[in-house]
Design goal:
The complex is a heterodimer of chains A (about 260) and B (about 800). Chain A is an alpha+beta fold and about 260 residues long. Chain A folds into 3 domains: about 45 residues, Uridine Diphospho-n-acetylenolpyruvylglucosamine Reductase, domain 2; about 110 residues, Uridine Diphospho-n-acetylenolpyruvylglucosamine Reductase, domain 3; about 100 residues, Enolase-like, domain 1 (2-Layer Sandwich), CATH 3.30.390. In chain A, about 35% of the residues lie in helices and about 20% in strands. Chain A has 11 helices and 12 strands. A 5-stranded antiparallel sheet of chain A has the order 4-5-8-6-7. Chain A has a 4-stranded antiparallel sheet with strand order 9-10-11-12, sandwiched between helices. In chain A, strands 1-3-2 form a 3-stranded parallel sheet, with helices on one face. The radius of gyration of chain A is 18 Å and the shape is globular. The N and C termini of chain A lie far apart (about 50 Å). By secondary structure, chain B is an alpha+beta fold. Chain B has 19 helices and 28 strands. The chains are: A alpha+beta (about 260), B alpha+beta (about 800).
Chain lengths: ~260, ~800
């Protein structure tokens, strides 16, 4: 890799100041940035390691929310008794990310800041209507994900935590890409009673999206049969060697039904 | 059978160092003052090199040299070569295109070698490669072999019009045509044997070191055949005289064929080490392995099987288009010809067979031998045709096979192979029994109740190992003989060094070869060490590929051991004061027949070296013998695999529900090692059939250039295999061995595709049968049902 300056600030204020510089990237778990640097696909002048900031990996249930720190590792979320009790679907999702190496390094904040169109966490954030809390503001998930690898984050803006409202029930169903085991299609469904949310990752040409037709059908009755006859249009669906748009769109329907069934619907 | 003798499940002695991280692979070896090489590779599939400006790169920090094809030419370093001449049906020689170690004038695939930077550190070398300015004239490219002979397709080598390397034929066209005219039924299939990328765990690596004091060269390399590498670099590429050149292949982490060949990278490392006056090391990064290791398979075939009214096979007609890539790799020409067509008769008595093979260049990485090398492709063709013929004839696929099995041996096929021994019905029936085939219908119903589709598929495979009788392969165009050598060196204390020309890169030779010698000499295994992989230690060797280490490598050891015993008997006769004819050797002891006078192997070894008690004018002191063993025939491992799958029609995901393999490998030295080979082979075959597929786009860019897109088989793709044996001994070698290293990879793909097509309900399922492919195939099934 090309050489760069490495910084490890002790607090978010210092981190934000460092991140205001040009050619600077934040390092959380490093599961995307480090391979890209090593393969020389990207180069930066400064890397700001957020690992020195205390408390950013805290996980706690707060009233009707689960609050997960941005630096919480996937393995932490997968095994946390708090998550397992409050929001087992999120623990199950984290358990399915990558392999043990990835899960012990990768973080929630890093994943959603990167917004890979095949990543799992964006589906949970959007599917639960989470709020992304940064050092500058609170961003609803619906306004956070802005397309492939694009988010609402501005320069120097650091995710501190994600606030997940707790649904009546929820589930994530993932069809892994056979090679990378990212989501070829992943569907997160959550039933809040007054609202049902269905978020799809891995499939959209613009990244994670909500399946509004499905949400409407499920709001009437939260059961897999409610999705019968809803055909996912292929427009805007990704096509690659692993899955053409027709197959992916079909899988969205299959995974959505399975997610509803897994959630108890 | 002793606890460590032939047939015993002895734990691998090499595992201690491998699983504790104490192996010594090429990349673990460091030489004083070593430098690092990094290659400038072509980003284009096809382009002229208009100019290379290396001035800036040469001035970069740490850079010792930037070398290009001009430097290779100036030093008169010869081209890389293809060592097997294949003639076209009109008698003309194959069209081998120029293949310099660094490209001159033109690049022919993405990853082709344009220049090399030698620097103090790898980072410095990489930084400088970015500054080597290559002015390319991008040309149209052809990556799909089906388009290679299109008149409008890009021309890759000037001497190969229409990108055609050869148009080869084996068999009797007229006899086949006559038989087809009589046929009651013809089964016809179009088949694509998908292109694979080898993916050894250890990537290729090389360290070249020139020693000016003695004018000698040493190359550490991840080669499966260090002597062949030395021979090729000396005699053909012209690096230096052979006796001035040592090649060491230390521990090697998997090859699967991809490390047989002589590649540009090691050629450049050893050549450049003299130019910079320091050792030059290179270890492939995984993305380089994807781009520039020789790939495997890549055939498009039309097969036709003619049968009579009773399901007797009358004739087979096969026409294959084989992709050889951008250059002819070391043994590439032989793989889709002599390693393929002679196996097309399968386990069946087919009176007439003809096989035409057209080999073509494309703008892709060279294609060469990969686990099975030609035989998986042949097995796929015949076993698909037989299975589909049974379906078309409404006959049980097992029964159609039974009716056509070769039962009399030796059996001369119409495609050159002379099958020496086998009992194909025995392995079929045993597999059927273990697989509980008779209750398949019940299991299918049970699957259907759960909304799943179940299918069963057979693969009654045969393959040829033990390459090969030297004069025969010489007649067929091979540039070398394919015997093997061994040396048995007994120390004065009775310890035994076994020096073998075979090379272990995962095959467990240190265990199985020691087991063999232990069994033969009646001494403990820990008195034996196996030495391989160093041209300065081992006299010569042809290396390990084609499952030859057992039938050929071990046969050489047997011959050498027999010579040691014969010599030791002469010594023992003097020690025991008896006639040589009265000395019997058994269980590690020399005994005078009919007496209790005996001496242990170690005592005789000591006596041979002390040389006090025998006339040295008649018997030379010492105890060391060697052998060059040349096989008299190929060996023919065969067996039946039965695969059962369950498909989720909603997602197209195939789960392997059951896998039975009944193999006839002849004599088995260590069943645990053999089962490991079978398991690994099946896993690779499952990889090909279900998951792996190398994809180039139309411009020749490698789409599957990393594990993000190239799907390797993993544990959760595989069931627990049921492996069993039947045994007929191979009559042509002293141990009766046939070889087992590739059988799984040969048998597996077609068993799986036969099972999947059985479940799907039609034959149009490609390899790899990914969930996407199977789902689309099921949509086709639905459309057909709707149309009916």
């Amino acid at each position: 890799m090309h050489t760069f300056a490495y910084h490890r600030p002790a607090n978010t204020r210092q981190a934000a100041a460092l991140l205001a510089k040009k050619e600077t990237k934040a390092l959380a778990g490093g599961q995307t940035l480090l391979p890209a640097l090593k393969l020389r696909l990207t180069s930066v002048d400064n890397v700001v390691d957020l690992g020195g900031i205390k408390g950013l990996d805290a996980i706690q249930a707060k009233g009707r929310n689960l609050v997960v720190g941005a630096m919480a590792r996937h393995a932490q979320v997968a095994t946390s008794p708090v998550v397992k009790k409050a929001l087992p679907a999120l623990a199950a999702l984290a358990e399915q990310i990558g392999d043990p190496h990835v899960r012990n390094a990768g973080t929630l904040g890093g994943s959603i800041a990167n917004n890979d169109p095949s990543a799992d966490y964006p589906a949970a954030c959007l599917g639960l209507g989470a709020t992304i809390v940064t050092n500058k503001r609170k961003i609803p998930a619906d306004r956070f994900f802005k397309g492939l690898f694009e988010t609402a984050l501005g320069r120097g803006e650091i995710i501190l935590q994600v606030v997940f409202p707790l649904p009546k029930c929820a589930a994530y169903m993932k069809f892994p890409n056979p090679a990378s085991r990212f989501a070829l299609v992943g569907v997160f469904v959550a039933d809040f009673g007054k609202e049902v949310r269905v978020a799809v990752t891995g499939a959209g040409e613009d990244g994670v999206f909500r399946a509004k037709d499905m949400e409407a059908a499920l709001k009437k009755k939260f059961t897999a049969a409610s999705l019968d006859g809803i055909k996912v249009p292929t427009r805007g669906i990704m096509s690659d060697i692993h899955a053409d748009a027709a197959y992916r769109a079909h899988l969205v329907g299959v995974m959505a039904k399975r997610a509803v069934a897994a959630a108890g619907g | 059978m002793s606890a460590t003798g032939i047939g015993a499940r002895v734990r691998r002695v090499e595992d201690q160092r491998f699983i504790t991280g104490r192996g010594q692979y090429t990349d673990d070896i460091h030489r004083p003052y070593e430098t690092r090489a990094y290659f400038v590779r072509s980003p284009h599939a096809h382009a002229t090199i208009k100019s290379i400006d290396k001035r800036k790169a040469e001035k970069m920090p740490g850079v010792l040299a930037v070398l290009t094809g001009e430097d290779v030419a100036a030093d008169k370093l010869g081209d890389l070569f293809c060592g097997w001449m294949v003639l076209s049906k009109d008698g003309s020689p194959m069209k081998a295109g120029s293949h310099p170690a660094l490209a001159k004038g033109k690049v022919r695939y993405v990853g082709d070698h344009v220049a090399v930077v030698i620097a103090e550190t790898l980072d410095q070398a990489k930084n400088a490669t970015a500054e080597v300015k290559v002015d390319y004239g991008v040309l149209p490219a052809v990556a799909d072999l089906r388009k290679a002979r299109d008149p409008k397709a890009a021309q890759i080598h000037d001497n190969a019009p229409k990108n055609t390397v050869y148009e080869w034929v084996l068999g009797d066209q007229a006899a086949v045509d006559a038989a087809f005219a009589q046929a009651k039924h013809v089964t016809r299939l179009e088949m694509v044997n998908n292109r694979l990328i080898p993916n050894a765990i250890e990537p290729r690596a090389a360290i070249g070191e020139y020693e000016p004091g003695t004018d000698t060269y040493t190359l550490w390399s991840t080669s499966q055949n260090p002597h062949v590498l030395r021979l090729g670099l000396s005699a053909f590429i012209g690096l230096c005289p052979e006796h001035k050149f040592r090649v060491i292949s230390p521990d090697v982490g998997g090859g699967f064929g991809s490390k047989i060949f002589i590649y540009p990278e090691e050629t450049v490392c050893i050549w450049a080490s003299k130019k910079v006056g320091r050792p030059v090391r290179w270890t492939a990064e995984r993305s380089e392995s994807f781009q520039a290791d020789a790939h495997g398979r890549d055939h498009v075939t039309t097969g036709e099987l003619a049968l009579d009214a009773n399901g007797k096979m009358l004739a087979l007609r096969v026409k294959t288009l084989a992709n050889l890539g951008g250059y002819l790799s070391t043994f590439s020409s032989a793989v889709p010809t002599f390693l393929y067509a002679p196996l097309l008769s399968g386990q069946y008595a087919i009176p007439a067979i003809v096989c035409e093979v057209d080999g073509v260049y494309t703008n892709t990485a060279p294609v060469d031998a990969y686990r099975g090398a030609g035989r998986p492709e042949a097995c796929f063709v015949i076993e698909r045709l037989v299975e589909v013929a049974a379906r078309e004839l409404n006959m049980d696929p097992a029964e159609l096979r039974r009716r056509n099995f070769v039962t009399q041996f030796p059996y001369q096929t119409p495609v050159a192979s002379l099958y020496d021994a086998g009992d194909y019905k025995a392995s079929l029936e045993k597999a059927i029994q273990i697989a509980d085939y008779k209750n398949f219908g019940r299991r299918r119903q049970e699957s259907e109740r759960r909304g799943k589709l179940r299918g069963v598929g057979f693969s009654a495979y045969i393959e040829a190992c033990g390459v090969a009788p030297s004069n025969l392969v010489g007649q067929l165009g091979a540039g070398v003989g394919l015997w093997e050598s061994a040396e048995i060196s007994v120390t004065p204390t009775g310890m035994v060094e076994v020096l073998t020309g075979s090379h272990s890169h995962g095959q467990s030779h240190e265990t199985t070869f020691a087991q063999l010698v232990s069994d033969r000499l009646g001494i403990p295994m820990n008195h034996i060490s196996v030495v391989h992989g160093d041209t300065d230690k081992v006299q010569f060797g042809m290396g390990t590929y084609g499952s030859r280490s057992g039938p050929v490598g071990m046969s050489a050891i047997v011959v050498a051991v027999d010579k040691v015993i014969a010599k030791a008997k002469k010594v023992a006769a003097h020690i025991l004061e008896a006639a040589e004819a009265d000395i019997e050797f058994k269980d590690g002891k020399f005994t005078v027949v009919g007496t209790d006078k005996s001496a242990a192997f170690g005592e005789i070894a000591l006596a041979a070296y002390v040389a006090h008690k025998f006339p040295t004018a008649e018997i030379e002191p010492g105890l060391k013998e060697h052998a060059f063993y040349d096989p008299t025939n190929f060996t023919f491992p065969a067996g039946t695999h039965i695969c059962e799958v369950e498909i989720d029609p909603q997602t197209g995901v195939t789960e392997i529900a059951n896998w039975v393999a009944v193999d006839d490998f002849g004599t088995v030295i260590n069943p645990m090692v053999v089962e490991g080979q079978v398991h690994g082979g099946i896993a690779q075959g499952v990889g090909q059939a279900l998951l792996e597929g190398c994809v180039y786009d139309d411009s020749g860019q490698l789409v599957t250039g990393s594990y993000m897109d190239y799907t390797m088989p993993r544990a959760d793709n595989l069931p627990s295999f049921k492996v069993d044996y039947t045994t007929t001994k191979c009559p042509s070698n002293p141990l009766g061995m046939k070889g087992c290293g590739e059988a799984g990879a040969i048998a597996a793909p077609v068993a799986l595709i036969n099972a999947i097509t059985n479940a799907v309900g039609h034959e149009d399922v490609p390899m790899p049968a990914t969930s996407k492919a199977v789902w689309h195939a099921l949509q086709k099934t639905e459309r057909r049902k709707a149309a009916e």
